[in-house]
């Protein structure tokens, strides 16, 4: 059973929601963050990445950076940029991209559920990345970036969501990237009870995205517990901000790999090594120009679409200005939740033995490209700073659940979720 609860949300004024909403803090490096906030005083990125308020000489992890985030947030609250609801409520957050919508319940989830495995993980976290958010959350006494959780569909909960979405939304705007964002408040006591009880009877929750934010929130809670040994468990610091989406509405995109060199092999030698475990077929020459498909006609579009992996066990490779289709032999496929993942097959039978890349997190010879950028980005990288690219078949949400249920971990960079949740729309103070 999963314990979630409604909360008194701090959120932007309706007329400023679009100006406040910002992509997650870790989408940007420091220079990109500075560019993004220029001329946008209400963007939540000013608070999420408060080093943007200082000269570049200031260390981005300096204590005063986190204090600036707190002070800037409090200043915006005082000015009325943000309002605090007086009642405990759930919210619905709907994102629509390319005609596909997903609606999640905005709630706070239990730290103890995270600690005992009711909230299940599929990735490890890095201590350095955790520490930054620990400092941010602890200094602000607020969680500002929601954890992206998933659940197996609960019919009673889904019915409440469908009913409330017929009402007037509290937010309705389109962000610069074309994503439509809508939100509703759920304050009816009966509806609140149905949602709380529905999750209490569920098998648990799954972290889809935001492992570092979750781990950081939990560590801040443990720190607060240590400072308050008589804590009851009901204090707000025992819960962390989440948006919880049903399995049926989620889509995971491909997370692709690009490699800097061929590890001393010629292109011909690489292909011969690949043939030991894959059927290798040359499909076409390059298709992209300036980030777009060269010829926009039906024949070309069909041919280009045929490059993108359409089934498990298929990988598309760009090498020497040509695309190849790799189809895994049956003997390297597996029913194991992790070894059976396409990203694991590429790691175990291509990146490791052929390229000698075994540490995906730290090896400088490999980089990762989210599927949102398309295959043309893989061609571009291979013409600039890389030699070979591998386009993946996406990991499914069911595979994510299976790995988490088994208490196992996926290889790094296995899932890419779109659209990205915005920060600043829902804030949990404690």
TrEMBL record:
Classification via Pfam families: DUF1015 (PF06245)
Domain of life: Bacteria
Protein known as: Uncharacterized conserved protein, DUF1015 family
Protein source organism: Eubacterium uniforme
